[in-house]
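ok here's the first one, seq then struct tokens
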Amino acid sequence: MIELIKHGTTIDFMGKRKYVLSFSLLITLLSFYGIFYKMDYGVDFRGGAEIQTKFERNVHLDDLRGALDKGGFQGTSVQTIGEEKDNEVLIKVQADEGNLNAITENVSKVLKTSFTGNNVEIRKVDIVGPKAGSELRMSAVKAMFWAILSIMVYMAIRFDFRYAPGVFVSLTHDIIIVTGVLAFLGTEFSLHTVAALLAIIGYSVNDTVIVYDRIREHEETGDKTKSLTMHINDAVNDTLSRTILTSAATLLVSGSMYFFGGAAIKDFFLAMTIGIIFGTYSSVYVAASTTLFIDELMKKSNNKTHAKKATI
């Protein structure tokens, strides 16, 4: 394997953790603001209409989006259904509760006006009310929560109790920041975004497991006189070359898909790109720092217990 970082490198990652974690706290607080005040929810989470259409001839999705935007529709999303020759398109349009029933007729008028000579048939209409959208938002949050919790339990069994909270904190940190950044960028939060966040959870925990495994290896076979801080620094330095190469390769793919993959998958890979950056960073600083914090708490608790026994 290509070794970008020479063996024996001794960068003091944990020595800088207070400054880096302060940065993380600031970004997390800003992300919360973005989530609560800047988020642009898609049809699935806000409410609107899903309209399945069939065109007589092939229609370019960019032209279809442009026609809907000119028609004054907000939060539109279009995607093909089935094989290309079927010319079937699923259109999602945001709408308020008061005009949900009229939205289909308005979309039909815009399509017939914009694509004269290309007959369009409305095959199916599904209305998503605001209440259903709210329930779907909660379901998405629950899905991510249970995914993180399950991984946390696995880490506690696979490694040690000290490691489990670090996984929970780092994964939650990644999800909040990615969602917050998307909110500030004005990216629509849709089911594609939820899929990206779940993928980020898997990617980030993989990085964290690599670091944790090396920390445990250093604790078991390394110098017993070294502190956990030194073991973490050694472990991160040992895996640094692998981390940089893996993240760079994944970023190359996700970045390429974002710029050249088309509008249908653009939001997904934007979230993935942001998640890879913060997932790599959190594996080193957030997860490992939390483990170090838990270890220090356990040592203080044990010292107090021993002190009480000594005074009895």
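and now the second one, same deal
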Amino acid sequence: MKVFVTGATGFLGSHVARVLQEQGAQLRLLVRQNSDGRNLEGLNAEQVVGDLRQPQSLEMAMSGCDTVFHVAADYRLWVRDPQQMYAANVDGTRAILNAARKNNVRRVVYTSSVATMGFTSGERLADENSPVVLQDMIGPYKRSKFMAEEIAVRAGRDSLDVVIVNPSTPVGERDVKPTPTGRIILDFLKKKFPAYVETGLNLVDAAECARGHIAALEKGRSGERYILGGENLTLKQILDKLAAITGLPSPRIKLPYMMALATGVVDEIFTGRLLGREPRATIDAVRMGRKKMFVSSAKAERELGWKSTSVDAALQRAVQWFQANGYLGDGARTAA
């Protein structure tokens, strides 16, 4: 099997590439000209230079491959120019699917996100059938992923074999950027988490999530979506787990929603608009947090053989990886 993979320099994509390599696949990786190559270390793979925002670079890069894993995405909760995010996530997905069609690719596995699901303010778990429309999506990341997923679903039910996987929130090693969730872990390690808000996420082990991608390739139905989730946890429960791993104290102060929103407004204006750096707190992130992003993976369990597992080991690996790779700086150390 000759596999074309996008996003292998990133967090989840690096795990997908490694699982494929373990299974004996020939890998061809799409790499941008100035990509951070640390996550490619140890991979025996052909690399081709290209960019999701340059469709002409994709068709030739994919030539000769029979399978595609499109994992790459612009995953940020704040961006100075949202059009760049739409270009990568929406137009880039359309370009990948067009290139796959022209190359007669056997199957595409497209990595979406649970961010596209319909969440409520109640306790009901979201699943693939939860009602949702584009207007429910908060911020350019969620909107762009929703739009890209619609393109993939239509293609999978029409002219191309496409299976869609919806990872929840991956955690683990090799989160090089890091992702917004990785920053939660880093802020905790750096003792920058004096308080928490009442919100919740589903966390999934990134390595297990990568194996779920392979199960989707082997067992998924074209045009269908599959949530790959792990544990539904409140933010306080996540911080308590990190406290148990590191020996650092978990915050005890719960921040009211309006105060959190005010913090997001100030940080976004000062850090984002004035300094041009990504804020630690954003308005969109606070707004998203009003609904717990709790999900059910029952469909993936039935059709793919997926099994939701504890994320304790993945959190442990994430902590150790950040510590070992210099993300805490010279003065920051855990008590463990």
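notes on #2: The CA atoms of residues 10 and 177 lie 8 Å apart. The radius of gyration is 19 Å.
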